[in-house]
């Protein structure tokens, strides 16, 4: 499946103020992509944790493409989110092509546990294997 363009998540009311999470993009019904940029460490990871707790979609893709640094705090946030989502029968996939964040995931041995994908198309295919139906 080729990568599809990503649309910005919009409110059902077009006159509503901008959404609370400007880094969230709807990519299919019931699926959102949360983009992260810069450093994912002790100072910034709690914001990602909050974003992941606030989302109600059955499927979430966390995009680490623009992450320039990630430490164990970032890994912990992703692992805890994966556990919560699994318990709630929701799906979580990490989109992370080669780069600094992918090296951390590879060295930690968590690529498979976190369902890491190289591209948006691969992330969507992973969600389909997990049983997510984009309708």
Automatic annotation (TrEMBL):
Residues 1-22 are annotated as: Disordered. Residues 29-130 form the STAS domain. Pfam families: STAS. It comes from the Bacteria. InterPro entries: Anti-sigma_ant (IPR003658), STAS_dom (IPR002645), STAS_dom_sf (IPR036513). Residues 1-11 have a biased composition (Basic and acidic residues). CDD domains: STAS_anti-anti-sigma_factors. Belongs to the anti-sigma-factor antagonist family. This is Anti-sigma factor antagonist.
